[in-house]
């Protein structure tokens, strides 16, 4: 379970001065559910997820992961979470098996239990054929599977996916979404951030639409469609922000992408 209350993150930016990247964000995600954080580049999604996984400290507000507070009990929070993003590192000189084993050991899992768990994970993620492939020889899709395997090796109840399909082709992207749906069936609490409306539409039970640091709307997809009388998430999004008159509206996002 993830409980975010009135979360604020302000940066002291040399160029922009004090910049509020996350502005009083509240959300609640349950086990067995995929919670979608949908928003364009620069909306503040990654900042929320980094605070959730204890990489960044909040300016104010509170975040609890399975009852543990991210500021007071960061080590316990890290045990609850598996984090997957597009640029999760895969070591060039380690095989798929060695990489996942290494992370399992970091979490202090006993050898026998680790072997058993890894066998299950490799089978479930259809990674058996790539056990001995070195990081330097892996395709992007293989690397992404290794990233998922290392994120779930300690069997965390909470999984965070930050734009996980970025740069993947349609086959690998689809397989990845299927894996995430399977993890939901296992009762995991999943946060899935994306700017791709179609993906969020397919996968997510609850959706928060985020823009310029704020959550503009939150609910199940059916609730959101009803509330705003719009047929899909894209229409709801533009209904909420208004049609941008020119790309000046989008300047902040461009900067973030290049940062
Ligand atoms: N260290 C920092 N200092 C100053 N501003 C920052 C810093 N990190 C992020 N920001 C700004 O905070 C805003 C939100 O960034 P964030 O990465 O959370 O957005 P996002 O929704 O994840 O988008 P993206 O998909 O581009 O990563 C952006 O305007 C970004 O430039």
TrEMBL record:
SMART domains: AAA
Entry keywords, A to Z: ATP-binding, Nodulation, Nucleotide-binding, Transport
Gene3D superfamilies found in the cross-reference section: P-loop containing nucleotide triphosphate hydrolases
Keyword ATP-binding included in the entry's annotation: yes
Designated gene of the protein: ecsA
A GO MF label: ATP hydrolysis activity
ABC transporter domain mapped to chain residues: 2-237
Source species: Blastopirellula retiformator
Entry protein name: ABC-type transporter ATP-binding protein EcsA
């Amino acid at each position: 379970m993830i409980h975010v209350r009135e979360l604020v993150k302000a940066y002291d930016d040399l160029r922009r001065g004090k910049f509020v990247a996350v502005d009083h964000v509240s959300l609640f995600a349950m086990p067995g559910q995929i919670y979608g954080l949908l928003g364009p580049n620069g909306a503040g999604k990654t900042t929320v997820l980094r605070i959730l996984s204890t990489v960044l400290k909040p300016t104010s507000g509170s975040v609890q992961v399975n009852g543990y507070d991210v500021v007071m009990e960061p080590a316990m929070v890290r045990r609850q979470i598996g984090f997957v993003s597009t640029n999760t590192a895969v070591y060039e000189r380690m095989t798929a098996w060695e990489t996942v084993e290494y992370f399992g050991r970091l979490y202090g899992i006993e050898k026998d239990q680790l072997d058993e768990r890894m066998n299950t994970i490799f089978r479930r993620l259809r990674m058996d054929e790539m056990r001995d492939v070195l990081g330097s020889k892996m395709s992007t899709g293989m690397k992404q599977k290794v990233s998922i395997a290392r994120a779930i090796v300690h069997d965390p109840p909470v999984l965070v996916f930050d734009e996980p399909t970025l740069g993947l082709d349609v086959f690998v992207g689809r397989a990845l979404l299927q894996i995430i749906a399977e993890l939901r069936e296992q009762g995991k609490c999943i946060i899935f951030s994306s700017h791709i409306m179609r993906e969020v539409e397919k996968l997510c039970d609850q959706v928060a639409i985020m823009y310029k640091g704020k959550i503009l709307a939150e609910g199940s997809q059916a609730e959101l469609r009803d509330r705003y009388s719009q047929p899909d998430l894209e229409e709801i999004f533009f209904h909420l922000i208004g049609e941008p008159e020119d790309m000046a509206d989008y300047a902040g996002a461009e900067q973030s992408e290049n940062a």
